[in-house]
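This section describes the prediction task in plain terms. A model, or a person checking by hand, is given the sequence of a single protein chain and must write out its three-dimensional structure as a string of tokens. No templates, partner chains or ligands are provided. The sample shown here is typical of the held-out split.
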Amino acid sequence: MAAILTAKDLCKTFSNGSVQQHVLKNLNLSIEQGDFTVVMGSSGSGKSTLLYALSGMDQPTLGSIRYHEEEISGYSNDKLAVFRRNHCGFVFQQNYLNDTMSVLDNVMVSGLLLTKNRKELAKRAKEKLLEVGLSEASFSKFPGQLSGGEQQRAAVVRGIINQPEILFADEPTGALNSENTERILKILTSFHENGQTIVMVTHDMKCARRGNRILYLKDGTITGELSLGAYVSGDSERHEKLRTFLQEMGW
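The expected answer:
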């Protein structure tokens, strides 16, 4: 498979007066088409910082990021916004839905930045909302009228409404109970099985098992990588393989 994103010698430093914190340190990696890449590591290891850099939400201090053959790490903030809109989707721990808009409008709002065909967009949004298990009755409701799990499912649909080449997920189940966590994981797995490239940050082994590729970060550097292959429900060997890997990494 060809690489979609490539990071080379990636560094990110935050400064607080005379104190500098080196969060990413000469990091190198490639994200390939169709991968479900999971980034793990202890708190403060640089997981979210890496995700934000790869997705154009933040700019690296040093190093380069290439999207296919295009260098994006030197883009202006405006150009990065266009890149994200055209090529990336996002799901966060918090759903960030607008409480004053209906669920359907929340999903469609980012799509309207790419297309003015509201009818076609609404059709796609409704199909995806139904696909993740939300009822037609929920489309006109406000987010506050839904459960937390339903809100997060709507947020996932918002993340993929523009049919992004890469879906970035930052602890997408971190605020959910076990039942809703399983629902979100099934949705992401279904998307991946249909060809969606996903990069997900998580601290949860149950979530990590869904990926076919695990990267382990420590002090801003990738210190280990594990290939798990395609996800199969109930695969105890997969769980043991991941557990052993994480123990070796000092997790």
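For orientation: The helical segments are 47-54, 77-87, 103-111, 118-131, 148-160, 178-193, 205-208, 236-249.
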